[in-house]
Design the sequence.
């Protein structure tokens, strides 16, 4: 057993959203910095500004800082309405602090912030910056799992190579593991920044390996669906989906929420995504991000020996956490997703791409079927053998 601890892991790979404990504050911004030790009273700008002085703050406790550009803010309240965990509230300005006496947004509970940037994305004035600060390693000193056997790793490398060669994939197939609470952890870097689960999948398809405990996940929806945390009330009720104009009424929102699978809160300690060829732990699901034609061959590979038709579960909601990961994970069946608002809005995934999640137990069948299809069907189809000559 490898007794190395995660506290000794190498420096994570460079990231697009650099995290800095000392990032300078723009003087135009009013910065509000609160810590976990002295929680502010909610709903009072006065208390927040006192906490903003940073008394008793420790770098480990600080996670995110919300900066409002007061010169741009028009006090519309959208940031407070859209924040899924009620970090932001519209508060009366402290007496004498502002000539405009209308309620203004304040980060009343920044210790709850997920860094999801929903507030910044919804602000019509571009008046919000979400600044990532130093976080703590929740797995410090925790024993690590032994590495995969050479035989197992070779298996994944072979699958990856066949998938890429037969389908002509541009991106790496991704190995997904949900680490049950208390299980040993693989030697996979924890990113400095918070990412949405879908963003981590997109990064893995480009070659990154990421292990994300709850405090590295930026999407409250995906994080609670995958069992790392409890679900915020605004999401459990469906209320937030109405604000996004994704559904017509609260009944529809509650139905959408109720029909999707969701793991019990805090039964999962971390999500791990890596290129399949560099898996560090046995995956439960393999994700392929590809064009419809390539996904079609995967479905045909899966049913090559059985001839069964697939009952797919796609909705346009929770594409990566539910449709690509949790459905294959919980049902043992392959599932296809067309993507969703979240993953398309927060990643560079092309409009021509879709997603499939394949349970590990089905991979032998899929690969064997794909190899058979490659002998004739795939080649003939791609050669367009029935296309009439163009005049
Ligand atoms: S959404 Fe933007 S403009 Fe509206 S209150 Fe919040 S910071 Fe101000
Ligand atoms: S980043 Fe997300 S959780 Fe944090 S204040 Fe903005 S909306 Fe709320």
Sequence:
């Amino acid at each position: 057993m490898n007794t190395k601890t995660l506290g000794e892991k190498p420096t994570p790979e460079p990231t697009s959203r650099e995290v800095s404990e000392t990032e300078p504050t723009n003087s135009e911004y009013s910065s509000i910095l609160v810590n976990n030790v002295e929680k502010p009273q909610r709903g009072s700008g006065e208390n927040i500004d006192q906490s903003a002085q940073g008394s008793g703050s420790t770098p480990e406790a600080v996670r995110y800082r919300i900066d409002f550009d007061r010169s741009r803010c028009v006090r519309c309240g959208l940031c407070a309405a859209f924040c899924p965990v009620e970090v932001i509230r519209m508060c009366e300005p402290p007496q004498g602090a502002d000539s405009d006496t209308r309620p203004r947004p304040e980060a009343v509970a920044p210790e709850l912030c997920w860094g999801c940037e929903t507030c910044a994305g919804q602000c019509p004035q571009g008046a919000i910056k979400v600044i990532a600060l130093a976080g703590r390693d929740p797995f410090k000193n925790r024993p690590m799992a032994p590495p995969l056997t050479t035989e197992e790793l070779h298996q994944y490398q072979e699958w990856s190579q066949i998938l890429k060669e037969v389908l002509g994939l541009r991106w790496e197939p991704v190995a997904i593991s949900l680490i049950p609470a208390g299980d040993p952890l693989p030697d996979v870097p924890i990113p400095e920044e918070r990412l949405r689960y879908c963003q981590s999948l997109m990064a893995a398809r480009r070659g990154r390996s990421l292990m994300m405990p709850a405090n590295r996940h930026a999407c409250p929806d995906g994080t609670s669906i995958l069992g790392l945390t409890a679900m915020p009330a605004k999401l459990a009720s469906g209320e937030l989906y109405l604000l996004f104009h994704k559904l017509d009424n609260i009944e529809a929102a509650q139905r959408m929420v109720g029909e999707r699978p969701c793991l019990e809160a805090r039964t999962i300690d971390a999500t791990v995504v890596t290129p399949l060829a560099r898996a560090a732990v046995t995956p439960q699901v393999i994700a392929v991000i590809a064009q419809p034609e390539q996904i079609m061959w995967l479905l045909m590979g899966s049913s090559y020996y059985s001839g069964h038709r697939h009952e797919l579960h796609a909705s346009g909601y929770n594409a990566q956490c539910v449709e690509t990961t949790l459905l294959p994970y919980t049902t043992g069946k392959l599932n296809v997703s067309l993507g969703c608002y979240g993953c398309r809005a927060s990643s560079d995934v092309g409009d021509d791409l879709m997603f499939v999640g394949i349970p590990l137990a089905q991979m032998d069948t899929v690969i064997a079927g794909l190899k058979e299809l490659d002998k004739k069907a795939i080649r003939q189809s791609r050669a367009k053998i029935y296309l009439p000559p163009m005049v």
About this structure: Residues 64, 66, 83, 85, 87-88, 113-119, 130 surround iron/sulfur cluster (ligand 2) (CB under 6 Å). The radius of gyration is 23 Å. The CA atoms of residues 92 and 103 lie 4 Å apart. The chain has two domains: 18-132, 150-379.
